[in-house]
Amino acid sequence: MVARIGVPGAVGAFLGATVLSRLSTEVAKPVMSAILLGLGVYVLVRFTFRGLPAGWLGRPLRRRFLAPLGLVAGFLDATGGGGWGPVGTPALLASGRMEPRKVIGSIDTSEFLVAVSAGLGFLFSLGSQGIDAMWAAAFLIGGLVAAPLAAWLVRLLPPRVLGSAVGGVIVVTNARTLLTSDVLYVALYALWAAALAYSVRAHLKERNATAAESAEERQPVGT
C-alpha cells in the first residue's frame, strides 16, 4: 500500500513543487478547500451513519485506484501546502476496504516519500531562499511529539468513531477558508460534536449486540 500510493505521490509532489515555483496559488486555495470539504463531509456522513461496510473490509485496493490518487494528492500537497493527508485519507476511508487506523498509518508512512520529493522540487526550483530554519525546527519538534501520541490513540479508537473524527477534522479545517461567519463556524463544530456522540452511541449499541450474540452462542443447549 505504501509503495503503490507513495511512489506516485512523490512524482506528483515533485511536479507540484515545480509548478508552484512559477505560479500563484491564491486562486486555487478556495477551490482546493471546497474539494477537501466535500470529501470530509462524505467521510463524516458515511462513518457516522453507516460505519464500515463489513462486506468490503479486507479486500485489496487496486493499483489503478491508488496510483492516480497518489499522483493527485501529492500534487495538491505541494501546491497547496498540505493535501496528502486530507485527500488520501478520506479517499481510502471512503473505499471501506481498510480499517481507519491502517489507512492513517499507510498515509503517514508514505508521506515521507512525498515530503522528500516536494522538498527536492522546491530546492531545485527556488534554492534555499525563503526557508525559515526556526519555523522548520518548531514544526519538526511539534510533529515528533504529537505523532507517536496520535498513532497510539488511533489504535484504541473504534473504526466508526475514528472515521467520524477524521471526517470532522477535515470539514472544520477546510470550512474556515470558505466561511466568513464565526456563528456558522461554531455551528459546524456543534454538528461535528453531535455526529461524534451519535457514532459513540452506535458503536456501543453494536458492541453490546455482538456481546449478547456471543453469550447466546456459548450458552449450552437446553439451558
From TrEMBL:
InterPro entries: TM_pro_TauE-like (IPR002781), TSUP/Inactive_protease-like (IPR051598)
Keyword Metal-binding listed: no
One matching Pfam family: TauE
Record's keyword terms, sorted: Cell membrane, Membrane, Transmembrane, Transmembrane helix
Transmembrane annotation, as ranges: 31-53, 65-84, 104-126, 133-154, 183-200
Localization in the cell: Cell membrane; Membrane
Membrane topology: Multi-pass membrane protein
Signal peptide bounds: none
UniProt family annotation: Belongs to the 4-toluene sulfonate uptake permease (TSUP) (TC 2.A.102) family.
Name this protein carries in UniProt: Probable membrane transporter protein
Organism classification: Bacteria, Bacillati, Actinomycetota, Actinomycetes, Kitasatosporales
